[in-house]
Amino acid sequence: MKNVPQIKIGLVAVSRDCFPESLSVNRRKALVDAYTKKYGADTLYECPICIVESEIHMVQALEDIKKAGCNALCVYLGNFGPEISETLLAKHFDGPKMFCAAAEETQDNLIQGRGDAYCGMLNASYNLALRNTKAWIPEYPVGDAEECADMIHQFVPIAKAVVALADLKIISFGPRPMNFLACNAPIKQLYNLGVEIEENSELDLFEAFNKHADDPRIPDKIKEMEAELGDGNKKPGILPKLAQYELTLLDWIEEHRGYRKYVTLTGKCWPAFQTQFGFVPCYVNSRLTGMGIPVSCEVDIYGTLSEFIGTVVSDDVVTLLDINNSVPKDMYKESIEGKFPYAFTDTFMGFHCGNTCSSKLSSCSMEYQLIMARALPEEVTQGTLEGDIAPGKITFYRLQSTADNILRAYVAEGEVLPVATKSFGGIGVFAIPEMGRFYRHWLIEKNFPHHGAVAFGHFGKELYEVFKYIGVQTDEIGFNRAKGDRYPGENPF
To answer: What are the chain's domains?
Structure first.
């Protein structure tokens, strides 16, 4: 994927000076061998200078991993570990960090070969808290070489998200449409996360668009679109304007990214957009999202932020959908009941006008926006990419700032069912276990807007850990609770 960071984790082994250093040396070697064998050598850098036992060693290790270009850190307790030096290393490293520890190898070597890292991890976590230093600690952070290799691999998508957010700029165009307060949210939490935001007027974008009217790159961009659409190219006459608009956005990104490496967009797509630009931007939004540059509709700033996190974590295309409409009961009885393990209230339809990438649709065609065309000439509403979303595993999730500036999130795993929607737009029949309760007692109760991000695959574990790492309190991260596991406030009777 473009527009996402590559992670290089510096592995630094530590040793308490009253324990044999050889324990950390040998265990580090075994860990590197195990990781390289299973996951390759590109992501992990073994700090060779020293085993950290002192503050001087800490400084040497820090300089070495910085010089090696590491943007994430794994502190590995090969034995009990020096709680001061190891946590100072984490404190002074500018980037995401994790801690894991070595398990004892054999009952035959529990005198000179016992490392007590199980105990040392407790002191490490205590000292991290004393220093107000955040680090990711796996669910069970003590393991043999292969198990610790797996822990480091689990850290990669978390580290990618943290690195990406620290270098992200969100570019928005226009205020929210009237009667559309649902996507309103304070931007203070963006700054708390290290994200920059550039807010622009629709008029700024319109001016830039008009300046691209004779852009010589337009014919080649049209050919790209024609190749992607294939037989679904139902509105060929609108492609020149869409190509002009896509080039406008891509140029704006390069001219306005400033010192930031990664960019997402959010724009106002109605009500004046169609009448002035002469089309709707849905298809172009889908194409940029397919390039790894998520674009949310309706100036949903936290929507595009959520999409970007999912793009980085999944290393794949995502989308943003309305949690839109219930599945008709006759469709449920005909196509779902008895064929899939879902109750009626587990199902719903996720929809947006046409912003989902063609690679995530079963088939696609260029159409006009039916809802807008009810009040406007059809020719100015062309530009949606319509089709049923391809069936398969999904994760529905969102990060949001509340009106009173609290970070809140949700994560729920489910699937898109292989059921024809018989509707319009980019749309799918979704099923999430216990969705009805989740919808009522988290999404409604916690005042979430109707937009949700969708990652194509099950990434709940990774997203949950990302939300925790970036500062969302665990009681503010919702998930679809199992039957019998009551939500706070859910009527027990």
So the answer is: 9-165 (3.40.50.10940), 168-479 (no CATH)
